[in-house]
Amino acid sequence: RCRRARGERSGSVLRDLLRALEVLELLCVNLLLCPWRKEIRSLKTFTGNFVYYIQSVLPDDIVTTVLEKIGYTATTATEFSLVKKRNNEETKQTAFEIFLARIECETILELMSKEEHGNVEKTLQKRTKMQQHLHDREDEMSQEEKAESGENKAVSDTELCLATQQQLAAHSCLSFEGASSRRSQ
């Protein structure tokens, strides 16, 4: 959809997606905090928030998948309900994933606002390159850390071994000296 949108419209699509993610995130939070409330146990698909912010932005199969992941089941053509015991961990994980997607939308919108023309495709390409660059740097750093930790581990193992030997030697000397002083008395 973003590719088809041009100019100001493309930012609008992202803002719509951002709002849809906000509503879904709020739904998850409410479900986790107040699952006993009547308005949480049943979700009507003809309400304003659902129609304007979710259904108009996201494809039906994605909406159904997300709602099923957080515990809702389609009971009628216009209603999702909590009819079975839901998995709290899966609901938390889905809420977190929605949160991350929302933050990513906010970041892309911010990057678009900083550019002259605010082209979504160019912004996404730049964002992808930035993420790839960061991922590559993390890989390099983790390889360096592994190498350093291997060297440090070898050094620390050597130091530990030497310290242990020194302690044992000191203890042996004291024991030997103590034993020899007892013999001389």
TrEMBL record:
Belongs to the SPATA2 family. It comes from the Eukaryota. It comes from Semnornis frantzii. The lineage of its organism: Eukaryota, Metazoa, Chordata, Craniata, Vertebrata. GO terms for cellular component: cytoplasm. It holds the Pfam family SPATA2_PUB-like. The gene is Spata2_0. Residues 125-155 are annotated as: Disordered. This is SPAT2 protein. Signal peptide: none annotated. Residues 133-155 have a biased composition (Basic and acidic residues). Gene3D superfamilies: 1.20.58.2190. Residues 10-125 form the Spermatogenesis-associated protein 2 PUB-like domain.
